[in-house]
């Protein structure tokens, strides 16, 4: 029989907080981490907003020797993993290391290293590339550093499925445990792509939000009539997933059961979101969790604030939840932490898990002008407390059509 | 002229090490420098001293003194004089 999987530890470095509780407190308070970027290349950007990590000093966590070989996205990942391991009180015996693994999502890996190395080379300022460029920039560096630091000798897998990368790393880790290939997995995502090249590339795609003329922090407006796109962010989030029996036996604090997951492809268009594909993914995740649509008490939406994306997701939710769809609170916390790409799903899944823990729903901020085509309860502007949440869902719908849905439930032994 | 002092200074700066720990017989691995850090340091040496270090020399870098000796020989062979 398939095993049950629980969440026993959380760690996060994000634009709205560098611990899980600080992160969730800021979400509930409607605090945005989106701002005018302070970078030396700001003049080259047409869109000058982003959601950077603040208050993160690498020197507090790593020696200068270590920093020679650990890129910014891996630094975020290692610190988030350390928090999660500590939070879980995770101690592995020699025999258990081989059945403990790691899986991370990242879209761009160590892109700042590549940009600076290639930039100098192409501009012919420097004909040589630094020796550790490959090791700093490879997408699997974050997961590999976690594996080395925590001696995890089970699976070590990195997924790059754009915006759903870390939902898939979490979901596939759940399957590793469920089907008996591992007992413990550290799963999440890491991204640090507020770089000149990456930001210019996203600018060119015309999917980035325009800066709000009155308040830069209010530029991301999911589900609102005046939404104009997403805001790039950076950070990392890691969860400790564990075989439920093991967690109960060791008396671990259990946040939730990871009860359902699905990933499936639109197989339709490289960027255009597709309600039919999203609907299929949500239905299969519900089936995996043995839940009915009305059992879901909160949805953390993909909610990127792109024109098409928010409408398609609304359609998919209506398709699955029918008449119940207007009773379910749906919020997009991207309105506050931005879009962390390969890390975003893990950040949002943590938001959903903490929502259940606190029986509190974070809002979608900047939602003042409703869009008639987006007509669900998006928890506009003000978070809700005193609710009763027993099952929560997190949606991730990526470029490339790679959809993933995670469902967490209150754990009952 | 030996490159020892220059190398000690560069090593201390690049890796945030204490100059007093960088005696000629100090082992690189006990200073926390693994083979990758050594490769990165070779790159800095090549850049700053305008020399070429052959790929197979990395294995010979065991102590701070080894690095200075090897660099002295390379500089002599490549007729680089300024430090």
Could you name the key traits of this structure?
heterodimer; A: 413 residues; alpha/beta; Peroxisomal Thiolase, Chain A, domain 1; 10-stranded mixed sheet; two-stranded antiparallel sheet; 14 helices; B: 83 residues; mainly alpha; Non-ribosomal Peptide Synthetase Peptidyl Carrier Protein, Chain A
Summarize, please.
The complex is a heterodimer of chains A (413) and B (83). By secondary structure, chain A is of the alpha/beta class.
Describe the protein's architecture and organization.
The complex is a heterodimer of chains A (413) and B (83). Chain A has 413 residues and is of the alpha/beta class. Chain A folds into two domains: 5-249, Peroxisomal Thiolase, Chain A, domain 1 (3-Layer(aba) Sandwich); 261-409, Thiolase/Chalcone synthase (Peroxisomal Thiolase, Chain A, domain 1). Chain A has helices at residues 20-28, 64-68, 72-88, 94-97, 111-122, 133-137, 141-149, 165-178, 196-204, 244-249, 275-288, 307-321, 334-337, 344-358; strands at residues 5-13, 35-36, 49-50, 100-105, 156-159, 184-191, 235-243, 256-265, 298-300, 330-331, 360-361, 384-385, 391-397, 402-409. Chain A has a ten-stranded mixed beta sheet, sandwiched between helices. In chain A, strands 2-3 form a two-stranded antiparallel sheet. A two-stranded antiparallel ribbon of chain A has the order 11-12. Chain A is globular, with a radius of gyration of 20 Å. The two termini of chain A are 16 Å apart. The mean pLDDT of chain A is 97. Chain B is mostly helical and 83 residues long. Chain B has one domain (4-77): Non-ribosomal Peptide Synthetase Peptidyl Carrier Protein, Chain A (Orthogonal Bundle), CATH 1.10.1200.10. Helix content of chain B is 49%, strand content 0%. Chain B has helices at 4-15, 35-49, 64-77. In chain B, helix 1 packs across helix 3 (64-77). At the A-B interface, helix 2 of A face helix 2 of B.
């Amino acid at each position: 029989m398939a095993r049950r999987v629980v969440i026993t530890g959380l760690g996060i470095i994000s634009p709205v907080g560098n611990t899980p509780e600080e992160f969730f407190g800021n979400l509930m308070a409607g605090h945005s981490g989106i701002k005018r970027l302070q970078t030396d290349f700001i003049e080259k950007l047409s869109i000058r907003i982003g959601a950077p990590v603040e208050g993160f000093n690498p020197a507090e966590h790593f020696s200068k020797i270590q920093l020679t070989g650990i890129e910014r996205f891996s630094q975020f990942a290692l610190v988030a993993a350390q928090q999660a391991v500590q939070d879980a009180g995770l101690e592995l015996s020699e025999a258990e290391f081989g059945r403990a693994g790691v899986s991370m999502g990242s879209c761009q890996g160590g892109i700042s290293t590549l940009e600076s190395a290639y930039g100098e080379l192409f501009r012919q300022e420097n004909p040589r590339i630094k020796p550790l460029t490959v090791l700093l920039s490879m997408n699997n560096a974050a997961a590999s550093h976690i594996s080395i630091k925590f001696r995890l000798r089970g699976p070590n897998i990195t997924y790059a499925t754009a915006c759903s990368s870390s939902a898939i790393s979490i979901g596939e880790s759940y399957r590793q445990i469920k089907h008996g290939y591992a007992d413990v997995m550290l799963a999440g995502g890491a991204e640090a792509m507020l770089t000149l090249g990456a930001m210019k590339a996203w600018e060119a795609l015309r999917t980035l939000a325009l800066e709000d003329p009155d308040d830069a922090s209010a530029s991301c407006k999911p589900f609102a009539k005046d939404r104009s796109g997403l805001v790039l962010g950076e950070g990392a989030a890691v969860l400790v997933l564990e075989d439920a029996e093991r967690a109960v036996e060791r008396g671990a604090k259990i946040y939730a059961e990871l009860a359902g997951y699905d990933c499936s492809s639109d197989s339709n268009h490289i960027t255009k979101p597709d309600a039919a594909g999203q609907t299929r993914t949500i239905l299969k995740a519900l089936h995996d969790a043995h839940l009915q649509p009305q059992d879901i008490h909160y949805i953390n939406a993909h909610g990127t604030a792109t024109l098409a994306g928010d409408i398609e997701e609304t359609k998919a939710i209506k398709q699955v939840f029918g008449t119940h769809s207007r009773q379910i609170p749906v919020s997009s916390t991207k309105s506050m932490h931005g879009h962390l790409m390969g890390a975003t799903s893990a950040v949002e899944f943590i938001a959903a898990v903490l929502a259940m823990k606190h029986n509190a729903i974070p809002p979608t901020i900047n939602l003042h002008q409703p869009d008639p085509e987006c007509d669900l309860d998006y928890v506009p502007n003000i978070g809700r407390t005193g609710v009763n949440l027993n099952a929560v869902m997190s949606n991730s719908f990526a470029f490339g059509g790679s959809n993933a849905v995670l469902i967490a439930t209150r754990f009952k032994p | 002229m030996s490159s020892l002092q220059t190398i000690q200074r560069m090593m201390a700066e690049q890796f945030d090490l204490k100059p007093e720990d960088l005696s000629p017989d100090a082992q690189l691995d006990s200073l926390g420098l693994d083979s990758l850090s050594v490769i990165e340091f070779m790159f800095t040496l090549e850049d700053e001293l305008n020399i070429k270090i052959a790929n197979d020399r990395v294995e010979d870098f065991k102590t701070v003194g080894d690095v200075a000796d090897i660099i002295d020989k390379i500089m002599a062979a490549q007729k680089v004089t300024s430090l």
